[in-house]
Every structure is written in structure tokens, then in C-alpha cells.
Amino acid sequence: MIKLKNINKVFTDSDRKVYAVQDVNLAINEKDIFGIIGFSGAGKSTLVRCINLLERPTSGTIEVEGSDLTKLSSRELRIARKKIGMIFQHFNLMPSRTIFNNVAYPLQGSGLTKQQIKDRVHELLELVGISEKENAYPSQLSGGQKQRVAIARALANNPNILLCDEATSALDPQTTKSILRLLQKLNDSIGITIVIITHEMSVIKEICNRVAVMDHGKVIEEGEVFSVFSAPEKELTRNFIKTTSNLQKIEELLETNSSMVTIRPGELIVRLSYVEKNASEPLISIITKKFDITLNIIFANIEIVQSAPVGGTVAIVSGERKQIDQALAYLREKM
Amino acid sequence: MDRFVSAFMPNMIDKFPKFFEALCDTLLMVAWAGIFSLAFGTLLGIVLVVCKKGGILESSAVFQIVDKAVNFFRSIPFIILLACLIDLTRFIMGTAIGVRDAIVPLIFGTTPFYAGQIESALSELDAGLVEAAQSMGDSPLRIIFRVYLREGASSIARVTTITLISLIGLTAMAGAVGSGGIGDFAIRYGYNRHQTDVAYFSVAAIVILVYFIQMLGSQVVKRTKH
């Protein structure tokens, strides 16, 4: 669907060169909800702008639905852009136009009659659940409502791809959830391919099926969200995952010598995490019975990512040392 | 009324016909010079915005030329510009004195000012709006009309008000080339003949005119802002 090949983007600022994107290769499949995560300045916004050529890459090719956008004339590019919707962190609605006219904006001058435009706008407003605000102005809407209008506008020309540039970063967590649910719904119902740029791992976890982690203009890790979450390869990825899970709190507790984690001689603190999608065995029960040890669960954090549990528990194991070792060996074997 | 006028403005009493003539001249100069300056200024202002670095039709060469020309004319004091443009005015209009002939230097004085004002008004516009329009496949021409001119309407109304008021100021100086107008009227009688009541009356007339334009401008700003 979208193939980025050897994308480089260099900004020349008087005599200084800034390498915003470096040799990025990505393939985004049809109906993917593809997340690109990174800290601000990692180049992710520049990268997503390359997909519809708002930012022309210094080198590399961008193939969207089989045609290389970098080779199109400006007229052809404008037609191609109508099939790539985009939403923004600050919504970018036209403040002097009503909600109706904002959504009608991309339809005007496309050969549709007034009545056809009217019907389409109503259909779109219905789809994003904001029909009653038709005659309001953007300044009268909340952030979440504005983003819904922006989504309706982006969908006006029936695009096959929706680019989301930090689309939820200006929203509170609850509104973020409702916008993500809407995107998920659109992905399910109209099968639109979605590319999401974010710095929040929770957004990736919530709706993406694939993720790329960016750092200093490079993609450092990429894959299925579940496998990246359960077995992150890079330190940065682990740091991002930490932000959405409290399993790492154990380290803080150990550092501060919390009474929760004081152990007696012979006891061990273990952290057990899911590594596979189809973990269904009651492992904790099994090892306590089989090896005659006790597990005192201090805390657990299990989340559902791509319909499979991710996370695990932190527990204090006590019992005979030999039995503990055997139990741990048994667990490792199960991996 | 006549008693009031003769008591406080003894010199005005026989000058009302002349005053109305001057008022008409001022309005005529503002109208004609205004129409041309606003049209040229808008055009140049848009050229500056779209051609500058990061603009939708980025072109360093065009930007440099227009920017330099605008700054050149903006830095010439109007009274000197009047003198410099006499030959050009004579070439365009046939003569170089009178109401009609003040219009040429007024256009040269106002257009660069307005171009600069338009440029800064349109630069204030959220760059995200232009980006959104581009992402929807709008052509540069459509972006100029549908985003810059439409979404920038209230800023444009604001700078237009400022420009028209400054244009009224310039018409007063145009009296120096025999253009007539309220400024000329005030200088001729109020200053040269020490008839200060005439000067005060002229000031009052100009203040009312400026106030009227200001009010009109504010109304437009209010109506275009949401």
C-alpha cells in the first residue's frame, strides 16, 4: 500500500545541515493501523509529511498504491493527495467557516452539485458523530469535537489512507480514547489504512497492529505491536513501553528499599512477563503445586494488545532453594 | 447656526462652498488612489507571502525583487516622492498639477505600504491552514483565494483601515502640488493667512472622516472574525 524506500530528508539551515530522516525503509500494508513512535525531534512528523509530499524527501521514493509520488507532476500530485487524508495535532480547521463548510471544503470545485455536497457532508458528520454542530464555528467546539470535524474533512474524498500527525497529542486521555475508538471504527468499517504518529506508547498499544520506533531520524525497531511489546529489542523501545506499564515500578521500589519488597534469606523476587500470544497455561498454579513453593504476588500488570495479554506480574518466591531453581528453570523452558 | 459660526469661526462663514469643494477633492483622491493602491498592494503582498522561504510558490528571485522595490518606495518621504514623480505623472496624466495628478504619487506612496501590511497580515495566518489545504490537494491559486484571502479577511480589513487612514494623511500633503483637498484648504487659509478657525474646522472634518473609516473597518473585522 505504502512503500517508503531509502527516504532521506536533510534540512539546510544556513551552513548547518540537519538530518531529519535518515535512510528509512518502511512498508505499510493495506488496512494496517501503523504507528510511528518517537520523541519530539525524532523525525517522525517529517517522515509522515513525506508520505503525501508536504515535505519532499531529499532522496528516496514513496510508493503509494503502486505509483511513485516523487515522480508525479504537481497536478497529478494534487489528485493523488485527495486520496490521502490527513489530520493534525492542532486540527487546522478553517476558523472563518462553519463546521459544515469546513467539511465541504475539499468537496467544493470537485464537480459535485450543491445538493450532493450537502448530502455528503451530512453523511460524514453523522459518521464521526457530530451532526448537531453543523452550523457552529470551530472556536465553539472542544478539542475532541474539532478533531472529529477534521476527520470528517479528511474523509470527504473517500481516501484509502489517513495520516494522523500527533492527532491526539493536544487532547486529554479520555478524549484521546474516544478519538482512537473512532479511528478503529473507521479502520474496521471502511477498511482505511491509518498511519499514526505519536509520542505516546498508550496510543500504539490501544489501536495499532504494527509499530516503528524512530530515534534521531532512523527507524530503530519495527514489527507487530504484540511482539515489540513483549520482546522489545532496543533500550528506547523498552523505555517507551515502561511509560505504559507499572511492571518496572519494582526497580523504584528496590531502590527505595520499600517494605513491600523486603525479602527474607532464601527468597527471590521475580518478574514474569508474557512473551507469546497464546499463553493459556496456568503457569503460576502449576509451579506452586509441582515444586511446592509459594509465590507472593506483589503486583501485576496485564494488558490486552492486539487481543492478547501483554505484561505480567512481580512476585516474591519462597521455598527450598533447589525447588525454586527448578521452578525457574521450568519457566524458562516454557518460553 | 449662522450666529454661532460668525461668533466662533468668523473666517469660515464665507468658505463653506470652498470647503465642500475641498472635501470632494479629498474623497476623490482617497477613492481613486485607494482603489489602485489596494489592488496593486494586495497583489504585491500576496506575491511576497507565497514567494518567500517556505511559501507555497517559493521563489527567492521574485521575492528579493519585489521586497527590495517595496522597501525602496516605502523609505522615501511622501513629500519628496511627490517632487520626484512630477515627470512620470506628467507622462501618465498629461499634467502634473491638480486633483487627478496627485493620484499617481498617492498610488506610489500607498501601494508599497499596503503591500507590506498585507504581507504581515497574511503571514500571521496559521501555517497549519495552508498545510491542511495542501494536504487536501488544493492548487496554489485556490489556496490564495480560499485560505489566504478568505481566512485572512479580518486581518486584511484591519490593515486596510490603517492604510486608508494613512492615505488621508498623504492627501493633505498632495496640496503641495496643487491638488486641493482639505489639507490644502487648511494650509492655505489656516496656516498661510492665520485663520486658525479654518484650520480647526478642517481638523474636525478630517477627524470625523477618519472616525467613520475606523468604524466601518471595525465592523468588517467583527463580521469576518469567528
From TrEMBL, chain B:
Coiled coil: none
Domain of life of the organism encoding this protein: Bacteria
Domain called ABC transmembrane type-1: residue spans: 23-221
Keywords: Cell membrane, Membrane, Transmembrane, Transmembrane helix, Transport
Transmembrane residue ranges: 27-51, 72-93, 156-177, 198-217
PROSITE patterns in the cross-refs: ABC_TM1
Compartments where found: Cell membrane
Membrane topology: Multi-pass membrane protein
Family, per entry: Belongs to the binding-protein-dependent transport system permease family.
Name of the featured protein: ABC transporter permease
Organism: Yanshouia hominis
